[in-house]
Amino acid sequence: MKAGFRQRMAEVHTWMGLLLGWVLYFMFITGTAGYLDTEIDRWMQPEAPVADYSVSPQTVVEHGRNWLDIHAPGASRWFIRLPVDRNDPYPRVFWQGAQGEGIAANGNAFLDPATGQPVEARATGGGQLLYQMHWRLHYLPRVASDWIIGVATMFMLVALVTGIIVHKKIFKDFFTFRPGKGQRSWLDMHNVVSVISLPFQLMITYSGLIFMALIYMPLIVVLGYGSGADNRQTFIGEAFGVPPMVEAMGVPAPLASLDAVLDQVSGRWGDAPVGSFEIRHPNDANARILVRGSHAAGPLRAANMLEFDGVSGELLAEYPARQSGSKAFRDVMLGLHEGLFAGPLLRALYVFSGLLGAAMIATGLMLWTVKRRQRAEKARGGSHIGLRLVERLNIGIVIGLPVAIAAYFWANRLLPVGFSARAEWEVHAMFLLWVVFWSSRSGHGLSSNR
Amino acid sequence: MSRRLHSRLGMFSRIAAAFVGGYALANLLPLALASLLPVSQAERVMIAMLASFAVFVAAILWAFAARRASHAWAGVLLVSAMAGLLLITQGSGGGL
């Protein structure tokens, strides 16, 4: 390693970009689709009713409570989400730990705001599934996917920083594109898309790591608070300002009037939207009601919260959205990452930036092969296995993934609406077609020397 | 041949310094520096977690920019040791 600093950084850039570039490409494409999750949901469930945001919170909460009373008795937790903006088009209930014969312990349902009955629509993973895939991948246990995307994102951050270091003329290259010149054109394209979207790429990568910081950097909590789940919980309680968990008393008591609670909420918050009701131990003497505001009102991904006694309806505590400066920084980073607050124009910009990120990765991967392909054609030995492997992966993933996602959409229309496992098979169709695409190209790449 | 092996071992050692040493440093240094701030312990840990990835990147770059693999290790270990010492003397490593 006698080469200069910039040369070494260029090598680091190359390898960090290459090694998990395909995972990153997958994350960028599915994550970009995730910015349109609600819209894709809508397309994939054409029979669902049109969203209605004018319905009053009182009505939504009453519908939710009636539904949960019948379908989730004895639950440890009820949850009612209100339709506030595009992120939640329908009122939604979910519950945990319900008891009784023929009662599902955990479950969820979207309610039609007009009738208070579940929305009837075909089963599908929808846009939410593409968004989930963006970080959960698929067919993998949580531990595996967490660490795969973590390492990939860390590589991405190193590739971004080394890319900036290697780059000499950021401004000039912005206006430089020389088409039809092979390697030089790929490099120009790689530079242009990277430079245009650089602030977005830095934000999205760093905030992605912050999302999972508790998982990736658990030792910091251990160093600061000691090891073990109790100490970890202490830290989370102190840092995130979450209300303490109370146990059920085991003595039945009627749940407080949610209308009266809503009146108290609007007395404090005025016209600010109510995002959700969480009811812990409903119909128990120790019930608690947590009312949260909207966490998509702005880039700060946090909501004001009020805690009520679930029997008397008395206000117990108030938890503001903004607490410490460091938590606010974290919440803004997460808010910027998810873009839940974005209106149509900003959302379009998010999608565009996400696509530029995917293009940055794809052109970088292409550049790696084009460079080595030229060298290999000049040399007598021909191409080596690594080059053929990367060339094949490039086509199989850069082109194959969008084709596979198209198959996901096709499956949504082609699978019978009544088919019980249709939601799962939409996804299987996506990955099956990807495999078919892959094997249909097996005549090229690895086996041939071209 | 032995020179090639030597250079491969050097690269392997450098990668280990970057990712293993760098990870240790990313866990220690931000918390050590945050322990100097006049804020609550929860906020120190939060700040340290937010900053840890930047420190990790810096450590990785350092390991690959260093003249030799041994320099890469020396830098990472020295700063880690200093950070550890600071944590102990500040008494804010509640878990130490």
Q: In words, what does this structure look like?
A:
- Chain A has two domains: 5-45 and 125-214 and 339-440, no CATH class; 57-121 and 242-322, no CATH class.
- Chain A has 16 helices and seven strands.
- Chain A has helices at residues 5-19, 21-34, 37-44, 57-71, 126-136, 142-166, 170-174, 183-211, 213-216, 218-225, 229-240, 258-269, 325-338, 344-378, 385-414, 422-440; strands at residues 77-81, 92-96, 107-110, 274-280, 288-293, 305-309, 315-319.
- In chain A, a hairpin with a 7-residue loop joins strand 4 (274-280) and strand 5.
- In chain A, helix 2 (21-34) runs antiparallel to helix 14 and helix 6 crosses helix 8.
- The radius of gyration of chain A is 26 Å and the shape is globular.
- The two termini of chain A are 33 Å apart.
- The relative contact order of chain A is 0.11.
- Residues 445-450 of chain A have low confidence and may be disordered.
- With 96 residues, chain B is mainly alpha-helical.
- Chain B has one domain (11-39, 49-90).
- Chain B has helices spanning 2-34, 41-65, 69-90.
